[in-house]
Amino acid sequence: DVKVTQSSRYLVKRTGEKVFLECVQDMDHENMFWYRQDPGLGLRLIYFSYDVKMKEKGDIPEGYSVSREKKERFSLILESASTNQTSMYLCASSPVGSDEKLFFGSGTQLSVL
Amino acid sequence: GEDVEQSLFLSVREGDSSVINCTYTDSSSTYLYWYKQEPGAGLQLLTYIFSNMDMKQDQRLTVLLNKKDKHLSLRIADTQTGDSAIYFCAESMTGGFKTIFGAGTRLFVKA
What we know:
Largest interface: A-B, 24 and 26 residues
Distance between the termini of chain A: 37 Å
Structural class of chain B: mainly beta
Structural class of chain A: mainly beta
Shape of chain A: globular
Oligomer: heterodimer
Number of helices of chain A: 0
Shape of chain B: globular
Radius of gyration of chain A: 13 Å
Largest sheet of chain B: 6 strands, mixed
Strand content of chain A: over 45%
Order of helices and strands of chain A: EEEEEEEEEEE
Radius of gyration of chain B: 13 Å
Order of helices and strands of chain B: EEEEEEEEEEE
Number of helices of chain B: 0
Helix content of chain B: under 10%
Largest sheet of chain A: 7 strands, mixed
Distance between the termini of chain B: 40 Å
Strand content of chain B: over 45%
């Protein structure tokens, strides 16, 4: 079974802090994604990566950056956390040629106070 | 732009059938998906259909696609309390790297 692991289930940070959300997948998938989930809005794509060191902006990249130094790891960085970044963050991965199916981690609920 | 719409809430009695509906706007979509999210968990792919198909059945699940009306539905037969979850409709294109999700329908099953 594909496993996508997010390092923290719950995280509480203060406004202005730098926040790192880590995601690791164990199935050698080329593509990795970061989404945020907000009630009534569904999932919105923040960034994705189709290869090591490659990244592309999604629909809502403002206030975020990402890093993919190794194939299995994709990090989401909030340079200076703000209260409107309080949300559930979901990491996903997919292999090439997989009918675009996504495999999700369990999510990180981030609260910025 | 691309958009996927679905109702936010559905309540059914245990043993009844549930039908969750979804409409999408992008006629070039190749794949249409249903993902399930249980409380405290990430999304899990439930089933999906190619855009050149009208129907797909998998045990208690039936997916119907009306491409002309851009309407997708998920029917769950003999709904159980364990089916209580949020169901997301989503669309994607081959090699598009971008899956568009609806807001999710919360299914509540009454015992």
